[in-house]
Design goal:
This protein has three domains: 76 residues, no CATH class; 97 residues; 150 residues, Histidine kinase-like ATPase, C-terminal domain (Heat Shock Protein 90, 2-Layer Sandwich), CATH 3.30.565.10. Strand 4 and strand 5 form a beta hairpin. Helix 2 runs antiparallel to helix 3, helix 5 runs antiparallel to helix 6 and helix 5 packs across helix 10. The chain is rod-shaped. By secondary structure, the chain is α+β, with helices and mostly antiparallel strands. The N and C termini lie far apart (84 Å). The chain has a five-stranded mixed sheet with strand order 1-2-3-5-4.
Length: 357
């Protein structure tokens, strides 16, 4: 019984071409045997009769049997394609949890087609979930950024302006020129402090040095700002950056470097970080490496700022055709490598002018 079952399974999973070929060979063989037997019997029974009618009988029977057998074989053999078409129609109508099962009449090629279809649906579901999660994280990051800016403006710039108002009232009450001069000096210092805080917040949002001088000076400035953190020493080096890059690449790599340094400051507990920017013939590479605590890259990212940062960096690099690689392990530091291709075709006239200046 087991042998018969195995033979049946092998026969059912025979490729469509061979199913049709075997069916027609069986029809021809059986027709030839049956026709020969009937013809011999008829000749022996009726030797004096003309046997022309047998030709028409055999032709009609052969056509009928061939039609019935081939129709049955094709229906069974093409049933996996019908199931696949039904699954495609369900997907087009909006169904999201569709999976195709091809049945026992499927052969190897149909199985590969069905597996590919199911894999595509799985990847689409995962991409949709990742997109939904990324949208949620982006909204969360926007709110966090608004909160940070509001806090900085309130704690620093707003307090400086409040102090200005207080000093102005004191200046109004000054009784002698010496006291007035002292209040004016205090006002000058507070005004400079407020301007510096507003300038720092504005540069954090979009540094003008990136537009004026390019990526390397902007990253170097960012590293200098990062060095103000206690306990962390950052180093920057660049090579081959004698020409400007296309603006989308400059902005993307700057944001990647900015986010990578932010992650180091918030999560890595590192004492040293190195930022390296290298331009090759057809690509530019940015590397940010720290000696911090690292993390297990194989574990699912926990929701939070780090997971959003990595997702955002990958999304940014993907938009310019680049790639992001994260090399890390617990207690082994983290190295982030971003590589962006340089396509001369995407240079705009403004980029050409900036690159030649």
């Amino acid at each position: 019984m087991a042998y018969m079952h195995t033979a049946r399974q092998r026969l059912l999973r025979t490729p469509l071409f061979y199913k049709i070929l075997l069916a027609n060979l069986a029809i021809v063989a059986l027709g030839a045997v049956a026709g020969t037997i009937i013809t011999v019997w008829h000749v022996q029974q009726y030797p004096d009769q003309v046997h022309t009618e047998l030709i028409f009988l055999f032709a009609a029977a052969g056509l009928l049997i061939s039609f019935v057998v081939n129709r049955w074989v094709l229906q069974r053999a093409l049933e996996p394609l019908d199931r696949l078409q039904n699954a495609v129609d369900d997907v087009r109508s909006g169904a999201a949890d569709v999976r195709v099962t091809l049945g026992e009449f499927s052969d190897e090629r149909f199985d590969r087609l069905g597996e590919t279809f199911n894999q595509m649906l799985t990847q689409l579901e995962q991409a949709a979930l990742e997109q939904q999660n990324l949208s949620r994280l982006i909204l969360q990051a926007q709110e966090e950024e608004r909160y940070r800016l509001a806090r900085e403006l309130h704690d620093e710039a707003a307090q400086a302006l409040t102090s200005l108002l207080v000093r102005l009232r004191l200046l109004e009450r000054a009784q002698d020129p010496a006291e007035a001069q002292k209040r004016v000096q205090e006002l000058r210092e507070l005004t400079a402090q407020a301007l510096e805080e507003v300038r720092r917040v504005a540069l954090d949002l979009r540094p003008t040095i990136l537009d004026d001088l390019g990526l390397a000076p902007a990253l170097e400035w960012r590293v200098d700002e990062f060095n103000r953190l206690d306990g962390v020493q950052a180093h920057f080096e660049s090579a081959g950056m004698d020409r400007r890059l296309p603006r989308p690449i400059e902005l993307t790599l700057y944001r990647v470097g900015q986010e990578a340094l932010s992650n180091v400051g918030r999560h890595a507990a590192a004492t040293e970080v190195r930022v390296r920017l290298v331009r090759h013939a057809d690509a530019v590479q940015l590397e940010v490496a720290d000696n911090g605590r690292g993390f297990d890259a194989n574990l699912p990212a926990a929701p939070g700022r780090r997971s959003l940062g990595l997702l955002g960096m990958r999304e940014r690099m993907g938009m310019i055709g680049g790639a992001l690689e994260v090399i890390t392990a617990p207690a082994a530091g983290t190295r982030i490598m971003a590589v962006a291709p340089i396509a001369e075709a995407i240079l705009s006239p403004a980029d050409e002018e900036a690159g030649s200046s």
